[in-house]
Structure formats: structure tokens, C-alpha cells
């Protein structure tokens, strides 16, 4: 029996980006549809707004400052909600009270990746749910610690690391690297570290990209392109 071709998909995203949550759901569907390809997913950090203070901001005030009016905010939410519903997401934007700085959430995701791919994926899914479906504050260490527990991480390690500056510089460097690569919006799916699919594309588009890159890799064409 032929071993399936394995490829890596690095997902550059921010856990407060609704399009990234939609993109995560669509990627799950794409991977299931490309069943003959072994896909390894790694989550990479991006901050939509790194200027938010570590304690966060009142979300209503923040959104008004960004978009100008309640009407405009409602229009944006109304456009996203049905797309989320189609992917099984129950967006509860009104429940979100704090616009958090996501640096600590990205540090936690980094540590989860050091445990295993499965744990990291489980954590990212949980963080999206907490923020968008439950209105939880992803800048709150207690919220992050509980998410780590639910994902199967060693909570004692997380409790010791979160108050420190561990991996702050490393995460910021990764974000800077994404910017240098020309990534200005998320989600961005990087296949085999070379080929980018930008935005929350539909599952079929992602499936096609996965199969195309896997096929090229199986033929050795990716190495020739280096």
C-alpha cells in the first residue's frame, strides 16, 4: 500500500479574527476531503492590533473607534454571522466585552505546539470558541489557563510561564517575519512553506491547493522549484 504524501500547512492567524475561525472550519473540511493526503497543521502568530494594551480595551469603544458607528459595526457582524453559521459557528459578538491583546494567547499556542500538533489544534479551536461563542477574554490569564487545561496541556507549566516574558520575543519575531513575507491580512495558509492561499477561502479551494501541492511534492517538483 502506497504511503500517502504528507504536507505541512502553516496557518498564520489571530484568535480574535472571525475570518480565521471560519478559515479553521473550512480547513478541517478541506483536510477531510483530501483524505488521500496526510496534512500536518501548524498555527503561526499574527496580531491584528498589537497596540492594544496587555489589559485590553472595552470592545464597544474599540470597535466604534475603528469603524465609526454602531450601524457600521452591525453591518459587519451581519455579513459574517451567516457565513459562520454555515460552518457551525454561533458568533455571539454582543457577548464580547473586551478587545484583548492576543500576545499571551499566541505564546500559549506556541507552547501547545511544543507538546503536539493535536494539542495545538485543540487549543486553537477552543480559543476561537471562547472568544467568539462565549465572549471570553483571551487576555485573561485565568481564561488561557483553563483553555490549556481543556486542551490537555500541563497547567502547572502554563501557570509558571504566563506571568513571565517567556517566548514574548520569539512570538513577536514570528509576527515580524510574517510581515516581511508580505502577509498583511489573515488567515493565510502556507503550504509546504512556499505556496500561500490568502483569506478564508472555501473548503473546495483549500482542498484543491492541498492536492496540487501534495501531487507536486510526490513527483519531486517542489524540490526542483527551489
Plain-language structure description:
The chain has 226 residues and is an alpha+beta fold. It has ten helices and six strands; from the N terminus they run βαββααβαααααββαα.
Please provide a brief summary of the model.
The chain has 226 residues and is α+β, with helices and mostly antiparallel strands. Helices cover 55% and strands 13% of the residues.
Pick out its properties.
226 residues; 4-stranded mixed beta sheet; two-stranded antiparallel ribbon
Oligomer: single chain
Structural class: alpha+beta
Helix content: 55-70%
Q: What is the average of the pLDDT values?
A: 96
How is the main sheet built? 4 strands, mixed
Q: Quote the beta fraction.
A: 5-15%
Rg over CA atoms, rounded to whole Å, is 18 Å
Kindly, what is the distance between the CA atoms of the first and last residues, rounded to a whole number of angstroms?
30 Å
Shape: globular
Widest beta sheet: strand line-up:
2-1-5-6
* Number of DSSP helical runs: 10
Counted beta strands: 6
- The helix-strand sequence is EHEEHHEHHHHHEEHH
Query: Ranges with pLDDT <50 over ≥5 residues?
Result: none
